[in-house]
Design goal:
By secondary structure, this protein is of the alpha+beta class. The chain has three domains: 47-96, no CATH class; 146-253, no CATH class; 265-399, no CATH class. Helices cover 27% and strands 21% of the residues. It has a seven-stranded antiparallel beta sheet with strand order 1-6-5-4-3-7-2, sandwiched between helices. The chain has a four-stranded antiparallel beta sheet with strand order 10-8-9-13. Strand 5 and strand 6 form a beta hairpin. The chain is elongated, with a radius of gyration of 46 Å. The termini are far apart. Pfam families: MUG113 (PF13455). Residues 282-376 form the Bacteriophage T5 Orf172 DNA-binding domain. This is T5orf172 domain-containing protein. InterPro entries: Phage_T5_Orf172_DNA-bd.
């Protein structure tokens, strides 16, 4: 080609080529088109998750637990619980459930049906402890939303001696059981028997006023101590209902006349024994304190070891006398006058260093104190006084060794 010559068009040709031959010769698969991955659906993930549960069942012979400490098993157990809570998932997995993992048992129609499902015999009772067929049917009484249930009495050791004393009095005949006669007898210090269990009224709380649509009702919380070591804070009215409906009984001293419904407790005369380790005190065999209390005696004496009134030592209650419809302080003074000749003459020093002369301690046997109470009830006490040497009650008209000299 020279300058000025027109451009020439040149055709270049290749021999004919068969594309199929090239494909067939690709032994390494370089020309293969990549296979597009199948999209994983939520149904696929559900089946895969359930398959792991099935494999666990096949390997261990039981369903996975959702409460075990094994993390892997707990995960499977929680997964199975979630599936069982969803009807749609159960339906979608039925075709994979070869062990019946998704079968929900029918609810038992009765307690008997429920007990029959005890495959592990957890409720086996060869001893018959679960057989309650011979027990009486007991009606339970509740107090609505503020129901007072029994609980353990943490300070029961303070009250246990009172129950022992009351049982001893019942055996000796110095106390007796009477039918419950009304709510007026539910007072501090009273003893009752409810369903065969003795109870003690330790405290009566302050009056509460509750308004209803009709009127304003008053009520008081009790602290009831039971001889089995429990206590309850039921309302006074609730205890009254239970004592009335369940044939409850009240424990009274045999020396007292039969209590009437409208009688009112005036207070308590109590007799104490000193537990002092002071040789001067401990050597007096029949040393007793005769006192008066309007409330529970155990509350009165709880700080005895720090009080010169109680000889700066713990004391033990040996007797109590509940008085009705009279001025109990006058009864106390009368007893002090009867036992004036046997009054303890001693001076105590209190914790502040001050001298104190206890005036309610007497060197007299308990049987003589009981006799004096009986004479008060009969009205004959004014005819008697306590003889110091004889340590017994004698008639004021009787000539004593001292008066004869």
């Amino acid at each position: 080609m020279t300058d000025g010559d027109p451009a020439q068009h040149v055709d270049i040709s290749y021999p004919a080529f068969d594309i199929q031959v090239l494909i067939d010769s690709d032994e390494d698969g370089l020309l293969d088109a990549p296979v597009k991955a199948k999209k994983v659906t939520s149904a696929d993930r559900l089946e895969r998750a359930f398959s792991e549960i099935v494999e666990f069942r096949r390997a261990h012979g039981r369903n996975p637990s959702a409460t075990t400490r094994d993390i892997a098993e707990r995960r499977l157990g929680a997964r199975l619980d979630g599936i069982l809570a969803n009807e749609d998932k159960i339906a979608a997995l039925k075709h994979l459930d070869e062990f019946g993992l998704l079968e929900i048992p029918e609810a038992p129609e009765s307690i008997e049906d429920l007990l029959q499902v005890d495959d592990l015999d957890l409720l086996g009772d060869d001893s018959g402890l679960l057989d309650v067929s011979d027990l009486p049917v007991r009606r339970q009484v509740y107090e609505g939303t503020e129901a007072a249930r029994r609980k353990k009495a943490d300070d029961f050791e303070q009250f246990e001696p009172f129950f022992k004393q009351k049982h001893a009095e019942l055996r000796a005949g110095t106390a007796k059981l009477l039918p419950y006669a009304g709510m007026s007898h539910i007072v501090p210090g009273a003893f009752f028997v409810l369903n065969g269990v003795m109870l003690f009224i330790a405290e009566v709380g302050e009056t509460e006023y509750k308004k209803s649509t009709v009127r304003e009702n008053k009520r008081e919380r009790l602290r009831c101590i039971f001889e089995n070591g429990t206590e309850s804070s039921m309302y006074r009215q609730s205890l009254a209902i239970r004592l009335s409906d369940e044939d409850g009984q009240v424990i009274v001293q045999s020396a007292l006349p039969e209590i009437l419904t409208d009688d009112e407790v005036s207070g308590y005369i109590y007799v104490l024994r000193s537990l002092s380790t002071d040789p001067q005190i401990a050597a007096i065999k029949n040393l007793h304190k005769i006192g008066f209390s309007r409330g529970p005696v155990e509350q009165r004496i709880k700080n005895a070891k720090t009080s010169p009134t109680y000889l700066m030592a713990p004391v033990e209650i040996v007797a109590t006398y509940r008085a009705y419809n009279l001025k109990t302080s006058a009864l106390e003074n009368l007893l002090h006058r009867v036992f004036a000749e046997v009054r303890l003459d001693i001076t105590q020093i209190d914790r502040h260093g001050r001298d104190y002369d206890p005036s309610e301690w007497f060197d007299v046997p308990l049987t003589v104190i009981d006799q004096a109470i009986d004479l008060i009830m009969s009205g004959d006490i004014l005819k008697y006084e306590c003889h110091a040497q004889k340590q017994q009650l004698v008639s004021r008209d009787q000539e004593t060794p001292d008066s004869a000299q």
